[in-house]
Fold these 2 entries.
Entry 1:
Amino acid sequence: MALPPHEPENTSPVGRTVRVTGDDLRARTHRDQMHVRLLGVAGGFCVLFAVVAVKLTIATVLHPMAPEKRQIAPQVPEIPKIDPKASLAGDFSLPQVHRASIVDRNGQTLALSLPVAQVYANPQELIDPQDVTQKLKSVLKDLDEAETVRRLSLPKQFVYIARNISPQQELAINSLGIPGIYFEPGERRHYPLGHMAAQIMGTVDIDDHGVAGVERYFDKRLMSDHRPLRLSLDVRVQSVVRDELANAMTTFQAIGACAIVMDVHTGEIVAMVSLPDYDANEFNHATNDARFNRAVTGLYEPGSTFKLQTAAMGLETGTIHIWDRFSSVPIHVGRFKISDMKSDHFSEWLTLPEVMAYSSNPAAAHIALDVGGKKQAEWMRNMGFFAPVPVELPEAARPLVPHQWSISTTMTVGFGHGMAEPPLAIVRGTAATVNGGILLKPTLLEREDAAAAMAGNAPDNPLAQGVQTAALEQAVAQPKPAAAAETPTAQTDTGEEPLPAPEGMRVISEKNSSLLRRLLRLDVTSGTGRTAESPGYFVGGKTGTAEKIGPHGGYLKHVNISAFTGIFPMNTPRYAVYVMLDSPKPTPQTHGWTTAGWNAAPTVSKIISRIGPMLQIFPDTAHAAEIDAAMALPMHPPVPRGVRPLGPGNDPGDPRKAEAARKAEKAAEKQKLAELKKQHGSEVMDE
């Protein structure tokens, strides 16, 4: 077998020829360009990833950004800010709630809305209602298992399981991972101070709309403006007043009581208490008696506290003077008799200071008769006693006043009987007698916040609209407003800040207002209101005791409404303090008496002693003698030369004269009617 030719293994390549064509060169060039491009793209991606990594590091580690509100679940509250100086106190509000909070004049929270959730289910998406209910029961301890199983088994697509659960419960249920269970954001109204000002606060319904109190009156404002609504109340004063009133109610075994503290220059209500009361968070479980606000809804005969109005009316109309005398002899009107409980300590004829100090009913009736029934009714209308008090509470009641103004009506109204007014109306009238004669509009709004609050709140409910309409009708009947220059601004005791000038209608002259202040001080220093004195505060006021009207009409014997309307300090009036006790019982300390001088007046004294420093008014015992001397008023003022005072032989308001005049007028009317009938009969005969 022949072998192929064999080439030597050490053949040198030098001799080989490599042929490179143009296509090869072009392909090699393209390949090199592609490599460069790939390296550039890879480098670009590396730079891009490096930039993204740096940005992520900055955004998540070095300088994390706060999440936007739309990125946060609606149930997650805003992180509170550090506020070591409490500069935000009273202005705290949760961004996820719709209803604004309510605070007192110092920023103390009275009402706020808390974020909650409603739990509902779609039964069509549930597999085992029994198992779902057991899981929910582990979180919702009060869940009714049988009822829940029944509802989750219904052929519906929507059923409520629980309302107003806390965010913690919502998270716990959500962690159970139950398909078909959903949440709906909501809010729940909470009153952190419980009983404090419960009747003033009112409450809201299930849809978070106000149904009582300021919650109802300012419903539109609270839902449209998230800024806290600032009231004129001071919870410190409110607490003291409630404490002292509760002690008095317990001591004298009264069935009810109320107290009011009001600024006599601005009309701001600093405290308003009605007992019994209730926890504002338990409105639906409170009794009707506890919900009843005796300060604005309760109607009571004012009793002798109204003698202040009778005296003011007589002085302002020019009918009486400080030196006139009035009979205290009992007056017989039909089968009734107007008399005093005790009259052995004063004479039959009393001067005006004695009438106020000794609180004589017949003498007050004589003053009313001197003025006349027509002027008396006009006075009451101008003072606002014919309309509901224009305060920001829909529960403000319309007073009960006589429809016909007979002689007996004139006399009984003169000493506070035969009519029924809410206590706030008496406080308002008292303030007008001491603040220079200006009739204020009582308000529950802090003075600086009032304009903004009222601008954002137009009453939609008929009750609030009715109160404002009545107030408007009342304002139309009142005289023109006093100019600001006519009312001098008093100075505080420290002289640091001038008192605000009262704004409203002038109903009493400054001169008569000054005299009435001295009369009120006299009642405390030498009259029936001695127990209201609080050393250094120069208290003035008027006691009032009225027999209570029974449920079927008629007066209940030995069952009284005891009240004291007071002012302090009387040398520079700042605040009115009113206390009323419903059906107080006698105690050994009162010696069997249930009149206001034994129960309501000492309660006012205790309140003033405690709240004075809170209101930046401190007792001035160092100058007590000088101040009392300046305000002193003699029981028997001298009669000016050439003036014939009212009194014995000059008593135009003598009921006997009035009765004779009434009979004469009635006889004249009968005679005129007889003549008309006779004339008509003759005309018929002629025809």
Entry 2:
Amino acid sequence: MNPPNFDSPIQNLLKLTSDLRSPEGCPWDKEQTHLSVIPHLLEESYEVVDTIERGDDNHLKEELGDLLFQITFHSQLAEERGAFTFHDVANGVFQKLVYRHPHVYGKQEGIGTGDQVLTQWDQLKEKEKEKKGIQNSDPSILSGIPKALPAIQRSEKIQSKVTKQGFDWPNVEGVFQKFQEEIQELNSELQNKAPSLPKNYLMMKGLKTS
């Protein structure tokens, strides 16, 4: 089998990915599934982050290529299942980014700061869901945060979400005051529901049982 030799580097990479999965391809690549290559996808993502933080452009180019291969590989697996293709992936993100940048590709005015862009982004995202008929089964403001995120990144996402709902304070004293307020509300609810709660639960919480 000869390596691909198209004029387009992307076309070469797509054909190479297909070749690796073909009957005459690589035994290891043919054994893989979306789930089995998740560790490699995560590893390549972290390696990209590492080179960015080190300011290493030479290795960044290499690591971005490795990450791009992960995308073409998952797209190849999906194409084999008849789900979608790499071109569907590229066109999908292209259409989405055009739609979410009406201040660049449309006539939207009054967007002059990054915060305004983010607010508009969230609004357009919700409109997209409505158009597609997507109903969120989880009404929580924390819905949509990937559970697979590392703890620090997940906590940052949570903080960003709750900040938009007003749960943000300029100092730690405000946080403790909010804690005390919520604790008092919880205690009040427990007192109101005391007659219907098990006696041992009430004793554990130090509430009156008579």
